[in-house]
């Protein structure tokens, strides 16, 4: 996959479809930093000292059909990682002290996350961790931390 794709190009190449409200002729930017897609966030590994990929981790090539990274809440739509053959590897063998990581990828060329509701997200070559997003709610969140309230609860962001 080249680095300038439209959503139409990506869906044609992968056979995956997206919902009708998305503009198919929109270019998909390829980003080498932090980016979010729905309830997931893609973070360069270097930004996450609390995440370690196991030394003996089994990396597998992302197949032509892609890798379903995570399925949305209650059986919802999947986030699927797609790449040209032998350009991206994926592992779920990592440790995240925060418990948010679902896996890691290392890419030698641009790769994409595809989701029916969100379209495509381009990921530049490099090593990244894909994590669930989390927000803090209630007393004890950053807005009221230290005010003597009960601890905040973590809530996972859902599509």
In short:
By secondary structure, the chain is mainly β. Helix content is 5%, strand content 43%. It has one helix at residues 7-14, and strands at residues 5-6, 27-28, 30-31, 35-37, 40-44, 51-53, 60-61, 67-71, 78-82, 88-91, 94-96, 101-107, 111-115, 119-123, 126-132, 134-137, 153-156.
What can you see in these coordinates?
- This protein is 5% helix and 43% strand.
- It has 159 residues and is mainly β.
- The protein has one domain.
- The strands form five sheets. It has a six-stranded antiparallel β-sheet with strand order 4-5-15-12-10-7, with no helix packed on it.
- The two termini are 27 Å apart.
- Could you tell me the radius of gyration in angstroms? 17 Å
Tally of DSSP β-strands: 17
Largest sheet: 6 strands, antiparallel
Strand adjacency order, main sheet: 4-5-15-12-10-7
Indicate the multimeric state: single chain
What tags apply to this protein structure?
single chain, mainly beta, 159 residues, 5-stranded mixed sheet, globular
Explain the layout of strands and helices:
Blueprint: E1 5-6, H1 7-14, E2 27-28, E3 30-31, E4 35-37, E5 40-44, E6 51-53, E7 60-61, E8 67-71, E9 78-82, E10 88-91, E11 94-96, E12 101-107, E13 111-115, E14 119-123, E15 126-132, E16 134-137, E17 153-156
């Amino acid at each position: 996959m080249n680095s300038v794709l439209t959503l139409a190009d990506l869906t044609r190449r992968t056979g995956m479809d997206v919902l009708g409200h998305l503009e198919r002729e929109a270019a998909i930017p390829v980003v080498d930093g932090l980016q979010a897609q729905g309830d997931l966030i893609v973070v360069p590994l270097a930004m996450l000292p609390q995440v370690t990929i196991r030394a003996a981790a089994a990396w597998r090539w992302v197949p032509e059909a892609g890798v379903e990274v995570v399925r949305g809440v209650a059986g919802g739509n999947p986030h699927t990682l797609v790449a040209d053959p032998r350009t991206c590897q994926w592992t779920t063998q990592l440790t995240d002290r925060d418990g948010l990581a679902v896996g890691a990828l290392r890419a030698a060329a641009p790769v994409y996350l595809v989701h029916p509701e969100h379209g495509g997200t381009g990921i530049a070559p490099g090593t990244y961790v894909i994590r669930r997003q989390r927000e803090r709610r209630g007393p004890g969140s950053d807005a009221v931390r230290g005010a003597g309230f009960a601890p905040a609860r973590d809530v996972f962001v859902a599509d």
